[in-house]
Here is the input.
Amino acid sequence: MKEFFGFGGYTRKPEGYMSAEHLIFVSSVMAVMIAAGIIIGLLYRRRSDREKNRVMIVSAILIDAVEILKIVIICVRSSDPLGWLYMLPLFLCSIFLIAMPLAAFSRGRMKEASLDFIFIFGLLIAFLGTYGAGNNYASYPVFSLDNVASAVTHAISGFASLYVAVSGMLSMKRRNIHITFLILTGFCAAAYIANRILDYNYMFLMRGDGTPYDVVYGWVNGNPVLYPLAVYALFLVYIALFYAVFYLIRKKKKTADN
Here is the structure.
């Protein structure tokens, strides 16, 4: 248990990014995530909105609890009293620590927009944060607090995305698109300000750090202005394309039904 939580530092050598251990572990987690999202979504599909929302409440509490536990343990094992400043919930995957409680406990358009946001980004975050987490799996053993807790929170994000779609909680109304954009914009702005103050890399807005964002960093030759703008622009393009493809599929489905 001491070794799993990393007290005194990990003695095991990291198996490495894209190692067999890394791929087997994250593939197993993703398989459970997909199965759970589809099965539970189908079980709750014909239930009331209140019953459907209970799953979101449990998911929101669970994702925040796991992340808080991880931060507390890392702070306890660290000798730096200000270490928590570098574990603020300002990464892309951290948006779900806020978006999921909003989806679970808010009402009206904010609830609808939060559910849509979870649907749009959940699976992307789940796969990028597990298969694409080169920074984590190159630094820590696969079976360790840092990687297991991260895999669990990313899996909850992906589960929520599937559950929202399969259970019928999804709305994807055009009138809420701007709220989805505002959620992302506010988060990126907060992360960038924190990066400038702390000289850190929240939301990977400063550099790729061994993740797929390195490709974007290379496109702009590491330009300190163009790189964060490019990352932000890609997020916006992703949202716009997601909505466009969703509406196209919905239109074709309605045409086929008629």
